[in-house]
Amino acid sequence: MTAAAASQTALDGAAAWAQAVRSSSIDAPTASRVERFVAGAEARVITRHSDGQPPLEIIAIAAPQAAQPLAEAAGQSIDRLSTWLGPLPGNRVTIVDVPAQAHLAGAAYPGIAITSSRLLTTRREFAAERALTVAIARQYALASATAPQPDSWFAEGLAAYLATRAVHESFEGRYYLTLRYFGGYVPHSIRAIVMSPNPLDPRPRVARLAEVVEPADAPWRLAHGADLDRANRLTMALHTLERFVGWPAFQATLRAFVVRTAGRTPALQDLTAVLSEQRGADMTWFFDQAMRVDARIDYAVVNLASVPAASAGWETTVDVRRLGEATFDGTRLPRATSTARSLPVMVRFADGSEITEWIDGRDREWRFEYSSASRAVLASVDPGAILLIDADRTNNTRTLNPPLHTVGLRLAFNWLAWLQDAMLTCTAVI
Q1: From CA 179, how far away is CA 414, in angstroms rounded?
Q2: What is the pTM of this model?
Q3: Which entry of 20, 145, 250, 371 is 20 to 30 Å from 110 by CA?
Q4: Chain segment 140-195, per-residue pLDDT in tens
Q5: What is the DSSP string of 189-247?
Q6: Secondary structure of residue 151 in the 3-state scheme
Q7: For the segment 307-331, what is each residue's pLDDT rounded down to a tens digit?
Q8: Cα torsion at 418, 419, 420, 425 (round to 10°)?
């Protein structure tokens, strides 16, 4: 997709906002709050053309110095999302830049994306762009969903997943934590080590991004209370599914799902049906267990022992147990007639060698015994962190004489550097 400026003439911001409200399902209180900020503002229209698709209008209502950068950031997000999922729903999206104190950054309604840019910022802060990416990503789930629908929790969970995935893809390697001082006006950005990409794992790190999940009681969310908890569980289930089937396969599933549910409220059954067709196997087992509210998924290495053998070498015993009642089946076929390779169990030895076994997640306990020339140092169930819906990942791995964790050292030194800057700042002020 290529961008072209169809018109660079200034439009009246209030009139552009009124037009956006008329064509959207935005709630009246939020529309009134935004209306106060756009009074007297200007709107800029940018038309984007794509082969075989109708033109898409981006209407940016913002300060003159912010309108063009925000429109470009929106265009980049739209390009990425349309590559994944197809054209953005509708032929117009209105971007509104409101002050940060309005607490509306990331708000999304059909055809409307709201963000907040600050006058004083740093080169490493992308808060406005991240919130805008979140709001645009939510358009795919919100286009045909409305809050009163019984499956609105599904649309909310899907929206959170798409928003998180889009932020990771757009800002990978540019994760910075921005702290603000003196009433929130003076920013200071430091690299967020926990969110930085792992050179040994190219997959995006999954975390609860503030611009995606906060505020939890926002009026633009489609689910609240118990339904919101269910939506959050679905979000993590979708991240797990992406890792289980692989991003290219899951992206193809999502694109087919968006096409199939165009013009109607999406439901979990629709996604399950498309996924089963794409995989060539019944995938209802995954959501049947992942979405259980009466049980949790929890696999653990409960014992790792490696002792000298009577003759020579080492004798190693590894015990794995399913602690939760929910299961990661790997198949729809009954356990009595089939065995599934659901989860891997990896054992690492001191000489660097590794052994990987596969377990059927429907069983309760497993024991593995090895005779080796070197001592075992680590045992892990699901070492690739596929099962993100595991209730307690801290018990997935056991080590003997664990080494000092380098990430802990990096975090400690990062905190010490921040403390030094904070102390120097306080000294200068006092």
Answers
A1: 14
A2: 0.86
A3: 250
A4: 988 766 555 667 899 999 999 999 999 988 887 777 778 888 888 888 887 776 66
A5: EEE-GGGSPBTTB-SPPP---HHHH-STT-TT-S--THHHHHHHHHHHHHHHHHHHH-H
A6: coil
A7: 999 888 999 999 999 999 999 998 8
A8: 90
